[in-house]
Amino acid sequence: MKPIYESPLASRYASAHMQHLFSPDMRYKTWRKLWVALARAEHALGLPVTQEQVDELEAHADDPIDYEAVAAKEALLRHDVMAHIHVYGESCTNARGIIHLGATSCYITDNADIIIYRDALKYIRSELVAVVSELMKFARTYRELPTLGYTHYQPAQLVTVGKRACLWIQDLLLDMDEIDFCIEKLKFHGCRGTTGTEASFLYLFEGDSDKTKRLSRMIADEFGFDEIFDVAGQTYPRKYDSRILNCLSAIAQSAYKFADDMRLLQHDRQLQEPFGSNQVGSSAMAYKRNPMRCERICSLARYVMADAANGPMTVSAQWLERTLDDSANRRISIPEAFLATDSVLRLYKSVASGICVNEGVIAKTVSDYLPFIATENLLMSAVKHGGDRQELHEIIREHSMEATRRVNEGMSCDLLTRLAEDERFPMTLEQIMEAINPADFVGRCPQQVDEFLDSIHLDGGETASDDDIKV
User: Fold this and answer.
1) What pLDDT shows up at residue 471?
2) Is there a catalytic annotation at residue 86?
3) Catalytic annotation, pick one of 20, 79, 209, 282
């Protein structure tokens, strides 16, 4: 039995990779690498920092962190950054005196956050690519399979299973546009000082503005950032947090739409999510086959969408050059949004890669509703067989009403038989059946699927294995 609370995002849902990105080790070792980069740049620009000190800091940057020692220091100092400076300095006795030279805490915290967020966004993007790839295979396979379309969740014109999947893909591609924009526009915070004026570094460089500016540029280059904020307060603009959370929320919205559609279709047994051979659907009803993964997608996606509200609230409450009421909120809201989005996409991929298509059920559903959908075509075909358009319209209307009554009473639809047996209707049952081939009622769906899928050019790596997803 575990004695303390543990986030389900870590224990049940998120990938090991995403958990590592937001782990204490990743955060605090990134801090150390930023201290190394700062010392390296200060040495190169002529400040009293030796190469030996830089080498010593670098040699110990990946050492295991003594978290007990850090906790003891923080309890004494009431300052997490200073606690880590002291503990790091105990391993680097020669360089201890130049760690954090000229910097403020946000040099460490904000730049580290941006680095981690960038890597997490790239990983989320790779997961999006993996999901889209699975859906593309599915859409291509079922490009021609007619299925009943719905508007207002009421029977409408036919579409194809593949065309419907393309709508899910299109949502994700729109999300990919947003995440690409978000990654492309990420900027490095740099060394800005306590109010963003760089005054401390200007003092260290004895008024040399060029060296002060080059310091941030050199560190940004070391971490792979092309751009630095032109102006900033003590922190980077919290608008970036809002942008990131909105991007993750957009992905959650798309995933929710897909999973909700799947739940509706599974109710009708047209499509079903994967179901393990030993999986239990209900502790009481042994026959149950519930859409558990899709329900979990919706549950987690709803959390991400709600969590995204933290970003704008934090942005709006930042007083002047900074305030600290963002810190505790950001430590929770941003990592958990990433972990939850990661969880959603892992589940999405596991469903998309194994959707069960019950073609018999789909065909029966089409057969049940096609007679009504086909009445306009039947009217035109009957006119070609010599009938009067207005008289035929009334005949079809009469029989449609009676067939609908039968369907509403739980009986099968007999509209086509009724028309064929009506002496006033100039077509035999065989002629009627030839006029209502389901493939003739899907419009350009197959061509739309081909054109759409051929226009997609994905790049991005595969993601972690889905074997450990708890369903």
Assistant:
1) 45
2) no
3) 282
